[in-house]
Design a protein that fits this description.
single chain; 115 residues; alpha+beta; CD59; 6-stranded antiparallel beta sheet; 2 helices; globular
């Protein structure tokens, strides 16, 4: 019985030890508070039970670099890792990383991912 408790404790401890801290926030173009875009260190830090910290930055193509929305969060399976998708209206940057609070950048530059 004692061995079973030790094994259960170790499993719980190891699971807790692999938690990933990420910045989590979202903002749209109508939002006044732009901390999510420019000052992620001022937004919520979340102890995620996921594999990746992520950023999705959506910009208008015209006018250039006008941000339509920004999302910082965490996911197990991001749609894309360090990729840019464009259509006629938007340029969408997808970034993902696996280090503590690594989703702190602009969202436009690739982030190194440990694979």
């Amino acid at each position: 019985m004692k061995r079973v408790l030790i094994v259960v404790f170790l499993i719980c401890f190891c699971k807790a030890a692999v938690a990933l801290w990420c910045y989590t926030c979202s903002v749209g173009e109508e939002d006044v508070d732009t901390a999510c875009i420019y000052h992620p260190e001022q937004v919520t830090k979340t102890d995620c039970n996921k594999k990746y910290c992520t950023i999705v930055r959506q910009e208008y193509k015209n006018p250039p670099e006008k941000i339509a929305s920004m999302f910082r969060g965490c996911q197990d399976y991001p749609l894309f890792i360090n990729n840019t998708i464009e259509d006629a209206t938007y340029r969408i940057y997808y970034t993902a990383c696996q280090d503590e609070l690594c989703n702190d950048g602009s969202g436009k530059l690739p982030i190194k991912v440990d694979e």
